[in-house]
Amino acid sequence: MSAFEFQLFDPNLRKLQFQLRNGETRVGEHFSQQNYSAAKYVLIGISENAGPQANLGRQGSENAFQAFSKVFFNTQFYPEVPLQNLAYLGQVKQIKQPLDRPEATQMVQELDRLIFDVLTQHVAPHQIPIIVGGGHNNALPLMRWASANGKLSVVNIDAHADLRPTDKRHSGNSFSFALEERLLENYGVYGLHEAFNNAAIRNQLTNPQISHRFFEDYLQGPYQLLDDVMGFVSHQHHAVGIEIDMDSIAYMPSSAFSPSGWSLDQIRTLLLKLGHIKPQIAYLNLTEAAPLDERDDLIVGKALSYLVRDFVRMA
To answer: What is the pLDDT of residues 265-293, one digit of tens each?
Structure first.
């Protein structure tokens, strides 16, 4: 029996949950009347925690997309933010809980195949997927799909390099696999937390394909996250995948929660500034948010909604 299912959104069969108010148009209303084939951006939800569980992370990533959709579908739709270029494809959902870590690892491999198939079957090469929810394990099928359409580099805002060994699949080794499979031209990872990247990972950071900066270096200065990311992206002459691990944001409910990190406004500024240089973007992956209660839901839902709305301003 499969541990996951893909629920394709059909506005004729399923109504999205959002509030109606006179004189206002909500994003959920737009999705209910969307022109999918004409959309530049394609929103896909992923509700799973197998990847973080296989990597000994905390639960909750399975709840992120639901928290996001409750907020995002109720946000305002108007021409100044080009949300007419965004369509909602559907949701990949975990329907079985792993009994132990080995089973979680097997489930991640199944999930890799499913996400790759969903992207291949439903997202055209000229469209840009926006992935919300789940663990950072889902970066690998995204990179496999994007690299099949042309050369790819990836920039990752993350407290962890996700370069753990490739002996088994989990949320901590998507970029090890990507480099091993030669999916990437370059990998830039910024904001690494010194205490949570081991010696083997630090050795891998010497790879000439990898550029990086530790969060502690930013704290001491004179480096700036915006300068590093803009510099990395502007030097790529091909498509760039944008990875934002929500554990890089201080106090964000996430699979590797931390009181130290970027502010949400710093990450928002980064996405808005990227729009000024109009890079060739392969995808956006907003990953590892892990709400566990009503307050977490509100924080995660609003944070992810802000980031998606900021990203589609690049249109």
So the answer is: 999 999 999 989 989 999 999 999 999 99
Amino acid making up residue 114: L
Longest CA pairwise span in the chain (Å): 58
Residue 245 φ then ψ, to 5°: -85, 120
The C-alpha atoms of residue 33 and residue 137 are separated, in whole angstroms, by 32
Collect all residues with Cβ–Cβ distance below 8 Å to 38 and sequence separation of at least 6: none
Distant-in-sequence contacts of 229-235, Cβ < 8 A, 24+ apart: 229/155, 229/157, 229/188, 229/190, 229/270, 229/274, 230/273, 230/274, 230/277, 232/153, 232/155, 232/186, 232/188, 232/190, 233/155, 233/274, 233/277, 233/279, 234/277, 234/279
Where residue 272 sits, what CATH number does that domain have?
3.40.800.10
Q: Which token pair is 137? A: 């394990």
Domains held by the chain: number: 1
Q: What is the pLDDT of residue 22?
A: 79
The CA distances from residue 45 to 134, 291, 304, in Å, are 8, 15, 12
Structural domain boundaries, residue 241: 4-312
Residues whose CB falls within 8 Å of the CB of residue 126, separated by 6 or more in sequence, listed in order? 40
